[in-house]
Amino acid sequence: MRMHQLVSSRPIMAKIPAVQCCYSGEQTTESQTRYRHQGASARNKSVHYRPASSHTKHQELTPSGSRADRNTSVMILQGHALCIITQTSIHARTCGSQIGSQDIGPRSLAAALSHCHKATVLGNIIAIHMLEYITAASSHHDGLHELAHDFLDVCRIMWSIEAGLVEYTRTGQSLPVEMTQEFDRKFNTAYVDFQGVDHWLNRSLSEERGGPGKKLSRGWRRMFMGNEIPKMRQALGKTRESLRVSALMFQWSIGEAKIDESLGIGYTALSAALDRLEGGKSSKASLAKASPAIDASFTSHGHDHSQVVEIALDEHISPVHTLNLPRANTVRSSTSGPPMQFSLRDEHPPRVPDMPPDAHWNGLGQIDHTRRTPSHHTDTLSTRSAHSRTTPPSDPPEDLRSGGLAELEQLGLSDHEYISDLKPTKVIRLPVNPSKMPRWAPRNSIGADTPSLKLNLVTAIRERNNKAVEQLLDRGVPANIGPDYHAVNEAIRQHDLEIVRTLLLFGADPNLAGHSGVSPLIAAVEEGFLDAASLLLKYGADSNLPPALDHDSPFALAIIKGDTHFIRLFLMYGADTNQVTVDGETILTKIISTKCNKSLVDMVLNYGADSNGKSKEGETALFRAISAGRVDIVTSLLDHHANPNLPGPKHMLWPATYQPKCLQVLLSRGADFKKTPGIMELATSINKIDSVSVLLNAGVDPNSKKDGVYTPLCSAIRDNRADIFHLLLANGGDPNVAASEYPCFKCVTHNRLQFLPHLVAAGGNLNSPKGIAETAVQFDNMEALLWLLDNGVSPNDQAPDTRATPLTTAIGLNKPDFVEVLLARGANPNIRGQDWPVCMAVKYPVILKRLLPALAQPRAFKGVIEMAVSANKLDSVKLLLAAGVNVEDRNGGVFSPLTTAIRERHKDIVAYLLDEAGADPNSPGEHLPIVKALRRYEPPDTEIIEMLLRKGADPNKVYRGHSAIIQAIEMGDSLVLRLLIEKWGVDLDAIDDSGRTPIEIVEMRGWEEGKDILIRGKKAV
């Protein structure tokens, strides 16, 4: 038989109606079927099944398939199913009598189902009580765990039968009356057994919860209660064996998945708790016990691979797509993997720490840093039974794997195709109607909202156990489990789309943020989990909603991360392109700051972003694009109505000056350069000749000033930009328009002599304003001075502001070489600048020596020697005296050279004037020299006084009512007074300006020593 495709058994089993079994035409019963599977004769026979409704026409199914033209076979090997689809159909023959010829009525079937449901509900309650007792009791009865396993086995069988009866009722199939009667009897027996277990558990729990007074009675009863456990186990074992074969039929008919999804929350929690307590052995043992006998029979009796169970179907079977079944060594099964940690005692579960992106829980509360793998699901989701609770049978459920995007299907695109391949300029808006998305209502919500069960849900999510997650949610554990945990975020961190889908189906809020301010969409963006984000959006997640105060929205976060896929996805689902991020950026400014490609900007613009929106700093997207030099984005923004004249915060032309291409685009698209006076100077200052060219071509005045001061031409000279300098001159730059200074002066001050000829050739006036030669001297630019003098500039021109001439500036700056050049080139030393040249030259003997021969009458400059004395330039004094200047010439008619030398304490000059120049020691300046010497006297230095006395200075001479004797009396210095009297004596008849004699003055002062000195001096005379 040729094998076409490998699939799991469930998709085929879900379509199989009630079947009848026959061995080569022999009529069999339900119990005989199991025993014939175990007999030796069954090794060489094929077990044939056909629909019970096929009465009029029978089909013959042969192992060889020689007479068949269509065949469907299922090979069961060690619990796994291999479905081999062949393209032959099977001829019919009579296979024997049917199992039961009388159909049960709907009322009898409903009654049997009601009794079964009654027993399963009680079983679920018992499981919860048993779990409570196991976790609460300080010590357990012998055999309690074995009793729990036996009870779980019966529960699983009961739930499988209930699921089968529900499916039969839903599909309108019938069962023989004998079978339903047998079911009813067995259900009642199971219910009685369950009541016994429940009674025993309630009694045990009551004693366990009792106070200290019940310890003695509890210990006494424990001695006798131990005998009850074997009895209960024996009763449960009989019930299990009586129901096992019945469960087998329904397992074949509806498949394991429907049975698994019907399991109650108590069963799930108790099984997990036992598994944890027994170190992971419970789940395997329970599964082996709970599985129908058919699995064990095939393994224990060694069926080879050639033995198959052939199933003939009346309806046509379409080719089945191959499923990629997970490998056992890479994917953990939900039944054989590490156990979940369930505990009903933990009323305050610890806070679950945030997991690293690659963290994986190993079932023992530890994190395994391994690569994520998809969660193992024996089927997708248990959609059929859950869906049947919310959807009429005629309305089949949606294919949840495809994402349910009807809009994309109309476009002929899947989610991923759109995200990856859609052109960014194409705008697609997908309507969101969360009310039309699949929703599941839990079977029961009573007693499920506890901290321990919520923790179990989180653990199941971390274990990537979708089946456990679904069962917990289906039994009432809320998908929104509170502030401590966030189920959807945990599933997203595990990258488990199926669990995310399950949580949303059970009502998880896609916009609910966790305690850390992370919403599901935020988590999806951070994890890069695009599929989860798409699913969340379909369930109403808002990409514009910040999860908390001072947090960015999911869309803004995608923008910040620059994730194009998420940005596109959010835009499709209504992202607001005009929202502002936490740091005050608009969506467009944030995108451009991350240097994204143009297509992303186009996409955001096409989805309605305001191209003129401003950030909190006042920046527009156009300003940001210009600053980044993105001419392509600038063009796109202008195409989307960005205003090129809107300050943001500056006018767009200012930053565009740095980007010539952007500048050209802006000017061509309506930017008004008249609103940016001085932009030409800015382009020149930043050395952007391309921008200068663009501005010139746009008609910007090359002489326009920036800040009312700076001109482009002067800036080009200042920065030595020859190319821009010549470009401006060629395009109307005026060499006579002043900035802070005139262009020609700028060439001198910044040593740009190479530009001067071009300026003059372009009409630059070297003589207006005057003073360019003086500027050359001031800036020590000999080359420029010579060029200017050679080109007709006068060496005697005065600067307009200071009236300085080139010569006086050269003298004032002590530049003998410039003085030499200027005098040689016709500078007039008799022309006053800021001062007379000779008066300025006394400070510099070298220059004075060069200047004096050029003066016609040096004596004409009165006080020049006093100026030299004041400058303490003895050489200049000598030069002036040698040039015929009078030593007694007073400066300003008051200050004589001698008195100035005494005042300044220039002893060498005093000595020279007295000894060499013949200065009169009694010729007054502002005072008599001897009086000036007394006033500048610093004890005990009497050298200048002695020099004057030695040269004939008279201490008794009165000038302006003052004499040296009177000055000494006023000073009260007996030493100086004796020095004066010893040389000249004292004239007691001399009077001061008040008419008092020296004796009267000392008497008024009461200075007896001074009086004695005066009297002795008079007698001495």
TrEMBL record:
Bias kind Polar residues: ranges: 61-70, 380-392
Organism: Xylaria arbuscula
Residue ranges, annotated region (Disordered): 32-70, 324-402
Name of protein: Uncharacterized protein
InterPro entries given in the database record: Ankyrin_rpt, Ankyrin_rpt-contain_sf
Keyword Protease: no
Keywords: ANK repeat, Repeat
Listed Pfam families: Ank (PF00023), Ank_2 (PF12796)
Ranges of biased composition (kind: Basic and acidic residues): 368-379
Extent of the ANK repeats: 516-548, 617-649, 802-834
